[in-house]
Specification:
two-stranded antiparallel ribbon, elongated, 108 residues, 37% helix, 3 helices
Length: 108
């Protein structure tokens, strides 16, 4: 594979190696702060779920309030924000509390 740009030296590299490297980077989450990791995991856990009163999960955030996980749910254009606490430091704490919250507030 070759990349070139006007008035610049061309770069030639193996396309298979490039694609493999990009695929590896896509799976690398080591750069994430703990809050972002928690959000990513909880978004996967809550995806497609609805609350007992029919509100559909949209997103989760650790950035609304310290040590609090905020979940956005909507129904017919109306948004509600649901919250539960976590230790603010560990993924394990957030996932444990998230599973408890899921069982209590969401349908299977």
């Amino acid at each position: 594979m070759e990349w070139s740009c006007l008035n610049r030296k061309s770069a030639v590299f193996d396309a298979e190696h490039f694609d493999s490297f990009v695929a590896t980077l896509v799976k690398d989450n080591s750069w994430e702060p703990v809050g972002r990791t928690v959000e990513r995991h909880l978004n996967e856990i809550f995806a497609g779920r609805k609350t007992g009163d029919g509100y559909a999960f949209d997103w989760s955030s650790t950035r609304v309030e310290p040590n609090v996980m905020t979940l956005s749910v909507t129904k017919n254009g109306h948004q509600k924000l649901l919250q539960f606490s976590w230790d603010g430091e560990t993924v394990a704490s957030a996932l444990s509390r998230g599973q408890q919250f899921l069982q209590k507030q969401f349908n299977d």
